[in-house]
Amino acid sequence: MHKIDYDAYLDEGNLDNFSTKRIERKTRRLSQREKRLRREAELMEHATRLPADLQPRFNTTFRPAMSERVWLLSYLEVFYNAQIITDVLGKVKGGKEANVYCCTAHPSTGLELIAAKVYRPRMFRSLRNDARYRQGRVLKDEDGKTTRGRREALAMAQHTRFGEVLRHTSWLEAEFETMQLLYEAGADVPKPLVHSNDVILMEYVGAEDAAAATLNEVTLEASEARQIFDRLVDNLAIMLACHRVHADFSAYNILYFEGQFKIIDFPQAVDPRRNPETADLFVRDVERLCQYFARYHIHQDAHELADALWGRFLKANVLDADAVPLELEIGVRV
Ligand SMILES: Nc1ncnc2c1ncn2[C@@H]1O[C@H](COP(=O)(O)OP(=O)(O)OP(=O)(O)O)[C@@H](O)[C@H]1O
Ligand SMILES: [Mg+2]
Asked: Residue 149: which pLDDT band, with cuts at 50, 70 and 90?
């Protein structure tokens, strides 16, 4: 099936009236917000002039703005053609890096709804300052192949177009792989279904007309709070056993729906065997957890808890000499 990659099409500067380099030059002295608005305006203007054969055949109930439509439908079309989704019902939330949409699932999937986390085109995304989380990561290129060369590392450091592609795809790949690993290990994460270079499809949490709230938006019953706290601690242990630390664990990244919760948003997750900052990131995660639950009179010392969990993890890994690098054992704070 013919697939239109608008992002690449526009990035290559294929059209005379749309060159990212030209816009870069013009907007160098503008603020980030002004730059973003100008770029969106340029793309919107361009989108209205797209040739008819570049219009996706995938029509949706959700009517995105023209600038969003250009990339959204082209990114999702492949899943429509593969009979995984049949419609996009609405946008659940727009974040800094990605938007999440509620889609209807194709009957063959056995699901009713699917959440699509669609990473915005590179030019519209403000990637988190990710150097801290990338240490020791396996890089993937656009075709999903593992790359380890110096050329790739240099390209990323120099922010060349190739380097940005690598950053973009490996960020998303890392999120999908972590979700898969954790889901299979029994952690409370939405079931990951499939991904492309720009999109992750996963189990949708919530109802058609109301997506799940995040934990910071709800008030829990006292008994429920205790249960959820305990189960979240279990989840931290499961993650450690899978060699993963979330690294952005907070009430904003925990969905709550009908008494159940799911942890989301994993692109920055780190591997303690490879990233020497993992212990610090883990303590920060545990601190946030304890701070949130203090409002429900659950007073757990974060450092004690982190110490206990991390200690258990180290003990389990002592048997496997390669599992935890020595410097991590020495450098560990807890
Ligand atoms: N599986 C899901 N089911 C329902 N809603 C979801 C799902 N995954 C994410 N969402 C919604 O989308 C929002 C953004 O998701 P996520 O945190 O993964 O993306 P993000 O780009 O990192 O966003 P942010 O910058 O706000 O953290 C969540 O806060 C939640 O409201
Ligand atoms: Mg988030």
From this structure: low
**Residue 94, pLDDT above cutoff 60:** yes
Say how far apart CA 243 and CA 237 lie, in whole Å: 10
- Give the number of the ligand closest to the Cα of residue 175: 1
Query: In this structure, which residue's CA is closest to atom 10 in ligand 1?
Result: 100
Of the CATH numbers 3.30.200.20, 3.40.366.10, 2.60.40.10, 3.30.300.30, which one belongs to the domain with range 56-207? 3.30.200.20
Q: pTM for the whole thing?
A: 0.79
Q: How distant is the alpha carbon of residue 193 from its chain centre? A: 14
Q: Do 303 and 283 form a contact (C-beta atoms < 8 A)? A: yes
Q: How far is the CA of 264 from the centre of ligand 2 (A)?
A: 7
* Ligand 1 pocket residue status of 190, Cβ below 6 Å: yes
Hey, CA dihedral for 264, 266, 268, 270, is it positive or negative? Answer: positive
Strands 146-147 and 139-140 come out as: antiparallel
Asked if residue 6 has pLDDT above 80, the reply is no
